Amino acid sequence: MALPQNVGGLDRLVRGVAGIWLVVVAVAALLDDRRVTAATAAVAGAGLLFNARTQFCGCNAAFGIDTTTASAEE
């Protein structure tokens, strides 16, 4: 199943960095026995990394936002 691309440029980079940061927060929270925080950060981080990797965001699609063309126009 091919997803249409609607995430690109700086948006993709920010999502990737934030996703990695949230995964690190999840591991730290898990080591500190804060399971709810760890699970929340892990799910959010995985979602952002999915967005960055596939260049697709469901929220962007729902609102009609496409950041792939924004970087090409600059």
Question: Can you offer a commentary on this structure?
Answer:
By secondary structure, this protein is mainly alpha-helical. It has one domain. Helices cover 74% and strands 0% of the residues. It has 4 helices and no strands. The protein is elongated. The model has no long low-confidence stretch (mean pLDDT 92).
- Can you tell me the overall shape? elongated
Which residue ranges are poorly predicted, with pLDDT under 50 across at least 5 consecutive positions?
none
Question: Could you give a short account of the major beta sheet?
Answer: none
Helix content: over 70%
> Which structural class do you get from the secondary structure elements?
mainly alpha
What's the total helix number?
4
What Rg, in angstroms, do the CA atoms define? 14 Å
The domain tally reads: 1
**N-end to C-end Cα span:** 31 Å
Give the helices and strands as they follow along the chain: HHHH
Number of strands: 0
Percent strand: under 5%
Please tell me the overall pLDDT. 92
What is the strand and helix layout of this fold?
Layout: H1 9-31, H2 35-54, H3 58-63, H4 68-73
Helix pairs in contact: 1-2
Tags for this model:
74 residues, mainly alpha, 0% strand
Give a short overview.
By secondary structure, this protein is an all-alpha fold.
